[in-house]
Amino acid sequence: MSRLLCRHFPRRALLARPAYSARSYASSASAAPQFNWEDPLNAKNLLTEEELAISEMAERYCQEHLAPRVLQAYRDEHYDPKILQEMGELGLLGATIKGYGCAGVSTVASALITRAVERVDSGYRSGMSVQSSLVMGAIHDFGTEELKEKYLPQLAKGKIIGAFGLTEPNHGSDPGSMETTAREHPTKQGYYLLKGSKTWITNSPIADVLVVWARLQETGKIRGFLVDRSMCPPGALETPAIKNKTGLRASITGMIHLEDCPVPKEHMFPDVEGLKGPFTCLNSARYGIALGVMGALEDCIARARTYALERRQFKGNPLAKYQLVQKKLADATTDAAYGVLAAIQVGRLKDEGKATPEMISMIKRQNCDRALWNARVLQEIFGGNAVSDEYHIGRHVANLYVTQTYEGQSDIHTLILGRAITGIQAFV
């Protein structure tokens, strides 16, 4: 197991059954296998001992430290940057990266962390995913060794915060039409000037460093730049928050405005151009989302099941006695089980270098769609009480709509798969 993770949680503690939930990965004492509604297809049997331990540790942290504060954070539309420091102390950030203060665990282990975080709230997972997959991933995959050594250890500890600027006000699903530009500084040799705007950028208002994708004016090619806020003169970089969201309210979202923002030439990723760079980062994040949303759906199932067993209607019967309620639970539990297995399989292939972008599109699309659909149906079990945020399921529904939309809306992933199946481009 990663020494970084072990330093914070001894193996015995990691493998112990958490007190907050009935969820347990311990082997059954009975010789006959028993159906476990929390893990219907025994997905844990596919995990290594290290992955099980990491999952337990992440679940414990999330339930003990994130769950108690999420409701008020969602109400207030407040994100506490200390959360990333807490995650960094446990080795949860950039977990697949080897070296630079990172844990160096498997792709599946990293996704199990996102599943634990999203079981509490998709907004918390979004903040973590941007830091880990999009910012740290971009620096690790495309940055110079100097950039890696300077920024990755601090990002891994959560001591500095990152944001990823790709989406623009006029170009969401069509990043190829990007308007943000980079041109050589006319008077300051060795610098570029970035000009343009990005929107719906997680972490941007509090980010210390921002990965920004811009079209190089001299070549027309899209290039990646690492913008360090501390290097920007007044007025060159603005990152206003986007307020009054109806989803992901426990994360912070904003814009990026660049007005001839000077960036050293050394902060341009040297060996990647075009959309390969951002799409490589997005594929890693999309994979984490695919297993992450299963955590949100599993929380909806657990809450709906508890409510159905406790709520009594019509001659004192629990709602769980009624066939329509049982069908809702059975459908959701089946989709969650299938989604987890698919994500684990693709994670294994990713570590073996055998995963394709279309595989990730498939599980991102399917798992996000089914998580949202099932969460909306499970919401019906609560009746009018679902409107109260104290039952949490309405928050999950609002969040899951966003997860279906960002990092490739489901219709876009449909077209990616359609192109792979038929060989015909249907985007335009």
TrEMBL record:
Its cofactor is FAD. Its EC number is 1.3.8.6. Transmembrane segments: none annotated. PANTHER family: GLUTARYL-COA DEHYDROGENASE, MITOCHONDRIAL. Belongs to the acyl-CoA dehydrogenase family. It comes from Chaetomium thermophilum (strain DSM 1495 / CBS 144.50 / IMI 039719) (Thermochaetoides thermophila). It is found in: Mitochondrion matrix. One of its GO terms (biological process) is fatty-acyl-CoA biosynthetic process. Pathway: Amino-acid metabolism; tryptophan metabolism; Amino-acid metabolism; lysine degradation. GO terms for molecular function: fatty-acyl-CoA binding; flavin adenine dinucleotide binding; glutaryl-CoA dehydrogenase activity. It catalyses: glutaryl-CoA + oxidized [electron-transfer flavoprotein] + 2 H(+) = (2E)-butenoyl-CoA + reduced [electron-transfer flavoprotein] + CO2. Pfam families: Acyl-CoA_dh_1 (PF00441), Acyl-CoA_dh_M (PF02770), Acyl-CoA_dh_N (PF02771). One of its GO terms (cellular component) is mitochondrial inner membrane. It comes from the Eukaryota. Keywords: FAD, Flavoprotein, Mitochondrion, Oxidoreductase, Transit peptide. Residues 163-261 form the Acyl-CoA oxidase/dehydrogenase middle domain. Residues 278-421 form the Acyl-CoA dehydrogenase/oxidase C-terminal domain. Residues 48-159 form the Acyl-CoA dehydrogenase/oxidase N-terminal domain. This is glutaryl-CoA dehydrogenase (ETF).
